[in-house]
Amino acid sequence: MTMVSEAGLPVRTPEESVSVLSAMKAVFSRDLKTAFRQPQDLLNPLLFFVMVVTLFPLGVSPEVSFLREAGSGILWVAALLSVLLSLDHLFRHDFDDGTLEQLVLQPQPLFLLVLAKSLAHWVLTGLPLVMLAPVLGVMVHLEGNSVAILCLTLLIGTPVLSLIGSIGAALTLGLRSAGVLLSLLIIPLYIPVLIFGTGTVMAASESAPVGGQLALMGAFLVLALTLAPFASAAALRISLSNS
Fold first, then answer.
1. What's the rounded Cα separation, in Å, for the pair 228 and 118?
2. Pick the residue with more confidence: 176 or 143?
């Protein structure tokens, strides 16, 4: 029988060795359970996303032609800022209660455990944004094909935002005014995803082919899955050694 630590992580015993997949599942499920115990952290990014998209037409222009042209940019910027709003909590709670040190001391590779945490963050933050996008897309008068492409670009792009954001969250861990520094570090890296995300939806609205843009976004996702966990793991070790 597998022993579990107080933080909910599997502990290696002389009788058995915990597999990497089991450790990743344990980290993933623990992050989900911890997040649902603090529903305000889950709702804040979603409410922010809805409020930005809803208030933008009131503050700029409610004309159908303008909203149809700018709708993809509005939704993508709101999604980007919503993900950025939630990144500060990615490692913060684990850092405060000592769980992060246990993760570093686990026999499994740290970058895989960080990958599990990043995927949990996407499931809690990015996936709900994708599910809300069709309703808000109709609100800004996007056409059916554009709404479908918007959801597809968000489905590909939001994991990239979570993975890249994990690097900034790890680098700023334990620092004062970490939120401001995190934004300065991460937003420049988000710009290519934002450009291709909005450009793909705009191309779809003009009935232009979007296969190339979607392929590039897929390449961004593959690169983020491959490189970001290593960078985040290294940044975590640096932050913990300096704390």
1. 10
2. 143
CA-CA distances (angstroms) from residue 233 to 100, 110, 111, 219? Answer: 11, 6, 5, 22
Q: What is the DSSP string of 23-59?
A: HHHHHHHHHHHHHHT-HHHHHHHHHHHHHHHHHHHHH
- Tokens describing residue 201: 């939806």
Q: Please list, residue by residue across 141-155, b when 16 or more beta carbons sit within 10 angstroms of its beta carbon and e when fewer do.
A: bbeeebbebbbbbbb
pTM of the model: 0.87
Contact between 142 and 150 (Cβ < 8 Å) = yes
* Alpha carbon distances (Å) from 48 to 9, 81, 122, 169: 32, 8, 16, 20
CA-CA distance, 53 to 46, in Å (whole number)?
11
Tokens 């390449």 appear where?
Answer: 219
